[in-house]
Amino acid sequence: MRLLRLSVLLAGLLPVATPAFAQRVQTRLPAKPAAPKETAKPDTARRPPALPLFAARSPFAVLDGMAVDSLHSQPLSGAVVTVEGTVRHGVADSLGHFIIDSIPPGRYRLGIDHPVLDTIGISLASDTITFVKGDTSHAVLAVPGGETLIAHLCPAARRALGPGALVGRVRDPDTGESIPGARVSVVWYDPDVLGLQARGLMKKTPRIRSTTVDKDGTYRLCGLPEAFDGKLQAQRKEGDATAEVAVTQSAGLLSLRSLSVAALRGTDSAGAQGPRYLARASGRVLSAGGMAVGGARVGLMGFSMATVTRGSGEFFLDSLPSGTQSLVVRKIGFRPIEYPVELSALSPARVTVMIGGAVTELAPVEIISAREDGLQKVGFTERKRGGLGGTFLDTDLIERRDASHFTDLLRTVPGIRVESGSNNNLQLVATRGATGAGSCVTVFVDGAPWRQLEANDLDSFLQPNEVAAIEVYGGTVKPAEFTTGGQDCAAVVVWTKVRVQRMRKK
Predict the structure, then answer these.
(1) Number of neighbours of residue 362 by Cβ within 10 angstroms
(2) Three-state DSSP state, 174
């Protein structure tokens, strides 16, 4: 059931019925030639104008129209237009053009259906049109513009906070059902128009808008700026959440973005683990120039699943959690990138990821903001001040070490030793802890366990200039989130600059 049904006056549907007489072809007789009176033909020999074949033979009417997406200034291709009260319908082509024939004569309204309208949560209908036997009517059906939609979707009090809006749907990725009551939030920063933040005279303050999903599965975030860059996230009542999705609004006042959130994995009455992750994703990693990128590490943000691309740039991941997630792609010489992906156990996802060039370095004011905001929000600052012990390397210390490889940053850290194994493969060994020397070491990158895919892969996929901070804990005492079940492994926790910058905007 949709949220709102707009009539022609609200929606801006512009049905224009061409008069019947304009459709008929008038046959004009040639001038009567001069001739002797005795040879002139009588007037009764003249025939009436001929009607076109369709008008003369068909007992039905025809609708020839266009479907337009005024919100995005493009044709509404794929729109299904129906003549309400009949079984007649048509589908708009890539140019938005559609034709509906065999319409019984009478008065009908036109209805239009399209995923864009489904995302917004509205349905559209025209005013009543009279269809005449043998005639062709013309109609231009236009989705309302952003300003019109916002006026009907957002209350005046919210619109007073800002002219923009972000709307969409939240569904379960494996059932397709709506998730009423889920929480949707967007976070952004106001632009530094006067340059006060760049000069360190004003701290960046995040702006937040939140709402809950309605019974029909739609949400509306109103009171947003006309233009902004932010992060969008949805969370179920049960606690599971989507990845943070980048949203940009630069053209128009209304943006659309739907999300999907799977239910939490639980345990049954016997204590058995719930259903395993069943989603799959495949794709290709390309450079900005369109060349295949082999040897890139592709993982899922917040999870240990990862793989390495082939020479063709192809990759495949299985046993993934369903929902709106984020792929993380890393390769030496390229800037790490996060790429949103919709995962479902119902069908595998297929994506093409483009990665750019060198790592983007933070400006001085951005570095300060990252330290104060990003590191604090990932818990680095609080744990450093706490009493659990551990060794902490912040951005300043990492930069002063001027390391060539990531493992070089750990060579002088207490409790960890970097050793050379067979074939000069490097490995991390704990030098103290409950299990004594030679105990295991678990590496966490951006809060998720790092799954080693090949020897030396930390040095292969993490560059020192990508690292914002490092935490190192012995095997006996460490934060609960960095423990390894059943083992007293030491923990090396790495926070990347990409993750820290993203956490600043939460």
Answers:
(1) 17
(2) coil
What kind of architecture, by CATH, is found in domain 364-504? Beta Complex (2.170)
What CATH architecture applies to the domain 147-260? Sandwich (2.60)
Own/partner pairs, 287-295, CB within 8 angstroms, 24+ separation:
287/334, 287/354, 287/355, 288/354, 288/355, 288/356, 288/357, 293/331, 293/334, 293/355, 295/331, 295/460
Every domain of the chain and the residues it spans: 4-24+51-144, 147-260, 279-355, 364-504
Q: Report the pLDDT value the prediction gives residue 141, as an integer from 0 to 100.
A: 92
279-355 belongs to CATH 2.60.40.1120: yes
Q: Where are the alpha helices (DSSP H) in 99-171?
A: 115-120, 146-153, 156-159
Residue 118 · residue 76 · CB < 8 Å = no
pLDDT in tens, 371-397: 667 888 888 888 888 766 788 888 888
Query: With contact defined as beta carbons under 8 Å apart, do 99 and 63 qualify?
Result: yes
The SS3 of residue 282 is strand
Check: pTM over 0.90? Answer yes or no: no
CATH fold, domain 4-24+51-144, is Immunoglobulin-like (2.60.40)
Phi, psi of 453 (to 5 degrees): -100, -25
CA 268 to CA 387: how far, in whole Å? 37
